[in-house]
Design a protein that fits this description.
Number of helices: 5
Shape: globular
Distance between the termini: 23 Å
Number of strands: 0
Order of helices and strands: HHHHH
Helix content: 55-70%
């Protein structure tokens, strides 16, 4: 997901688009990585889990941005809220009973990220 050699806003936008593209191009892998079926285990073993890695990538991307006018309450919380919203957009697109529109999904992701960046 990470985007190298770009400004922080463009990197965040690219990450959002890559996240959406990955989900649509790899629906089974996406469901396996982020499905709702929970297998409980020790937190110490979670460091390499996709959830931990993806959340860390969102945290890093948001931390690179200048703070919005209202300021940030909590980088981890903001990253979790961003990811939750983006995951919801993707999940809804994948659940609809017709072919997902990659361009429409990318536009919705861009709009979400623009609103978050604006504060």
């Amino acid at each position: 997901m990470r985007a190298a050699d770009r400004g922080p806003r463009e990197a965040l936008r690219t990450m959002g688009r890559r996240y959406c593209s990955f989900a649509l191009e790899n629906p089974r892998r996406y469901r396996l990585m982020f499905g709702v079926e929970r297998i409980a285990g020790p937190r110490e073993q979670g460091a390499g889990h996709p959830v931990t890695l993806v959340l860390g990538a969102w945290e890093e991307a948001l931390a690179a941005l200048p703070p919005p006018p209202r300021g940030r309450m909590d980088g981890s919380q903001d990253a979790l809220l961003l990811w939750s919203a983006l995951h919801g957009i993707v999940t809804i697109a994948m659940a609809l009973p017709f072919e997902a529109d990659p361009d429409g999904l990318a536009r919705r992701a861009d709009e979400l990220l623009a609103r978050i960046v604006a504060g």
